[in-house]
Amino acid sequence: MNKVFVSIEQHKNHLAEHSFCQHLRNAEYPDKSIFSFVPLMSFFVLGFRDLLEYMRVPFPSNQTEFLLNEHCTEDSDHWLWFLQDLETLELPIGAWGGEKISDSLHLIWAPQNAAIRRQIYDIVVLINSCKNAQEKLVIIECLEAAFAAFIESLNVLTKRMGVYQQLVYFGEHHYDKESEHTMGSWLDSAEPKAQKAPKAKGTIRYPVMEQMIDDIFQGFEAMFSCWEKGIEISMQRDTRVAWLQ
To answer: Above pLDDT 90, what percent of the chain?
Structure first.
């Protein structure tokens, strides 16, 4: 698994240099409008909760399967933290596309945001292609690494804004809970992951896993671009409103 972990770490580091992550880290005088990408995360965050259930092994029979299920359980309530942060952030209606629920649904399912939804669908296909729990753990590692690239950049922003301790999904609470994980923690680097990797029942198809890792991170690149565009559109909208006033 060492080779797999190293590959994921390399992809994570590359993703962390995406212009969206750089924007979060480098925003010098941010206000609440910089969180206007959060509504666009809704489909992925809620879909991630379903991915965990889909990956779960109904009747685990070996250490790897038990570890997979344990990790799925550890992350199963994170979507509730996301909803809690939506209340805390109190984003303006413009960030949701308008005043009506139909505006928000249109925003989430708009053609220009298809890459966000596509990532969930594509991962479902990859889960179906896995031959054992060990290969499913590779998917989890990719998801956690991609989230690390995002949250470590966001932490710079939330600490600068003084909201790191107030936010649950996007702040200190999530970080503390992640440190308690048995497997798949995005706080780990490739080296400690390799040290505690379970002895799997079944073999890893390394060429298949390498392609899977590439595909997953390409999907995150496209998704981050959608989130970045969401910030730009929201800022343009706020500028127009201010000008009209």
So the answer is: 71
Residue closest to 124 by CA, chosen among 65, 28, 52, 29: 52
* Cβ-Cβ contacts under 8 Å for 60 (sequence gap 6 or more): 66, 68, 69, 133
Residue pointed to by tokens 């109904």: 58
Instruction: For residue 19, give the nearest of 218, 153, 160 by alpha carbon.
Output: 153
Instruction: Note the residue count of the chain.
Output: 245
Non-local CB neighbours of 129 within 8 Å, separated by 6+ positions: 208, 212
- What is the pTM assigned to this prediction? 0.87
pLDDT digits (tens, 9 = 90+) for 133-183: 999 999 999 999 999 999 999 999 999 999 999 999 999 888 777 766 544
Distance of CA 38 to the CA centre of its chain: 11
Write out pLDDT tens, residues 195-205: 545 454 457 89
Element holding 236 (H helix, E strand): helix 206-244
CA 12 to chain centre: 12
**Do the beta carbons of residue 94 and residue 64 sit within 8 Å?**
no
**Alpha carbon 170 to chain centroid, angstroms:** 11
Instruction: Report the C-alpha gap between 70 and 129 in whole angstroms.
Output: 21
DSSP string for 122-138: HHHHHHHH--SHHHHHH
The mean pLDDT of 39-51, rounded to a whole number, is: 96
- Residue 14: pLDDT above 90? yes
The tokens for 233 are 């559109």
